[in-house]
Amino acid sequence: MDIRVRCLRLEPGLVLTMAAPATGTTLPPHVRPPWVPEEVTPSRQSDFVLSRTAVMAAQAIFEVGGLVVADGRRPVFPPGLRGSISHSQGRIGVCLGTDRPEVVAVGVDIERHVRLSIEGLRYVATPAERDWVLADKCPGRTLTGLFAAKEAIYKSVSALASRPPGFLDVELRPAGDRTYRVTWPADLLPAGLTLDATVTCVDDYVVAHAVVRTDRAELMPHRYPPPAKPSGISVSSTGDAFRARRAVLADDRYLGGRYPGRRIYPGAFVLDSVLRSAEAHLGKPLRIEDIPAIALTGILGPGDTLYLDAECADLPDSFQVRAACTDQSGAAVATLTVHFKPSGPAEPGA
Question: N or C: more exposed end of the chain, with fewer CB within 10 A?
Answer without folding.
Answer: C
